[in-house]
Amino acid sequence: MNFKKDVLKPVLITFAALILLLGLVMLSLHLWCPYAMAQISYKLGANNAALSYFEKDYKNSKNYDVLYSILNLSIKTDNNEKLVNYFEEFSVNENYRDYIKKIDEKNLSLKVTNLVKSKLYSEDNYLKNRYVLALAKLSRTKDAFNYAFDNTSFVADENKLDCYLFTYISNVNYFENCENSNNATLKMCEYFNNLFSVFKANYVNDEKTVLNFAVGGRINEVGNNIKELDKLGYSVTLSAEQINDVILQVNQKMALKY
């Protein structure tokens, strides 16, 4: 038996044929099934490629689920320009509220909740905060501030925590020359106090709930935000000592949950 002729050559031919077949399959998927390629790329950790394929699919399908995937991948890949553009399209869709509600229900049903999303308490809060952050990173300061101000009621209610979008824009570069900046800092102080009231009213028997985690985390964020604004010379009604005292109380209680 000639090993090279009778064994090695057929093996190499078969291997080459399989490689060629695989290449043809991948080429076909690339050209005609971008959604399938997006899923494959995502599972392989190739997020930029997955984003590109989802975009290609969305151009033809206009599928809302695909648009949501594009948003999440834009966040993962830190592609702020795409995040801004696609969120503006996503958020004005007539299905937005119903879709977000389903996402929230899914998130709450998970045994391990995404910490970032649970702290923001809802998918609506999460996406809006990421949108403001993307605007800020793109140096669209005025747009970021105005959107944050328009979409934050500052009213702390256990059923409607609202956004705390100013987390991402509370420094002199973002607040300078923005309308309502002093008014916003005063409202943030009121919001901080309201949050603490909600936390105290709902923290019973050290119960571990998404609400308690959300409010506790938010108190930390907003409190530290106010302290930074105070250093920058903006009008605040809470001293650093008062804020630190509240944060300490909250963190001591939250530590009991872990």
What can you tell me about this protein's structure?
There is one protein chain. This protein is mainly alpha-helical and 258 residues long. Helices cover 73% and strands 0% of the residues. The chain contains 13 helices and no strands. Helix 1 packs across helix 2 and helix 4 (64-76) packs antiparallel against helix 5. The radius of gyration is 25 Å and the shape is globular.
Shape: globular
Structural class of the secondary structure composition?
mainly alpha
In the predicted model, the low-confidence regions spanning at least 5 consecutive residues are: none
Q: Strand percentage, roughly? A: under 5%
Largest sheet: none
Helix content class:
over 70%
Helices and strands, in N-to-C order? HHHHHHHHHHHHH
For the CA atoms, what is the radius of gyration?
25 Å
The CA-CA distance between the termini, in Å, is: 69 Å
Mean pLDDT: 78
Count the strands?
Answer: 0
Counting DSSP H or I runs of 4 or more residues, the number of helices is 13
